[in-house]
Amino acid sequence: MAQSTGRVAGKKAFITGGAQGLGAAAARRLAEEGAKVTVADINLAGAEAVAAELNARHGAGTAFALPLDVTQEDQWIEALEKANGLMGGISVLLNNAGVAGDKPLEAMEFDLWKRIMAINVDSVFLGAKHALTYMRENQPGSIVNISSIAGLIANHNSPAYNASKAAVWLLSKNIALYCAKQGLDIRSNSIHPTFIDTPILDPLSQRLGKEEAHAKLGRQIPLGHIGEPNDIANAVLYLASDESKFMTGAEMRLDGGISAM
């Protein structure tokens, strides 16, 4: 049986991209603090492993796993309906699923551009649109969207990643204002990490070796090192909890100081 104490006791969270990285870290942190979680991912086996780990640690009924391709509206509708039944409601939506891996402007294929935009942006639109059906019945609620510092600061070689993460930033504000105008006690905020030790860094680590890759990235950050998944999971916890009840339409920059330069 899921625990009934903690900073998010009684919350019911639906997490995309939950099989690894930031999504898995957030699922662990929310479960530690009393929430039920549904781990959704196109990698169902990975999602099931995370859910099994959390149930073993915190009790049966803490976590559930569902398959979800975040670019497919019909899958969103089905997964949210199932999660609502499994958890007895949905009060937190964490739109975490995302990809990088684009190319400089003239080298980028249009299909790659569309894929990155679909996973990074369409997913946030579809998630919020369809999750609100259930979140209306489980207020207060919180929508947390993982953007990136690359959504606020551009570079020269990631047009789709820059554009998609900037879109998540502004869409988060639109959702916040929409919910407020509707009189809903449902907040929407975005989180903007810099380099975090997750599988998204694997291509660079494979090319340079993990230690050198992390050192190279760390040299770009005023604090001198990359972040850890729990740095982001702790921010998700705060935004999911009622501790942040007066925070909506805002962005949290977890970037080691990059945006202050």
TrEMBL record:
Keywords: Oxidoreductase. InterPro entries: NAD(P)-bd_dom_sf, Sc_DH/Rdtase_CS, SDR_fam. It comes from the Bacteria. Belongs to the short-chain dehydrogenases/reductases (SDR) family. This is SDR family oxidoreductase. It comes from Caulobacter segnis.
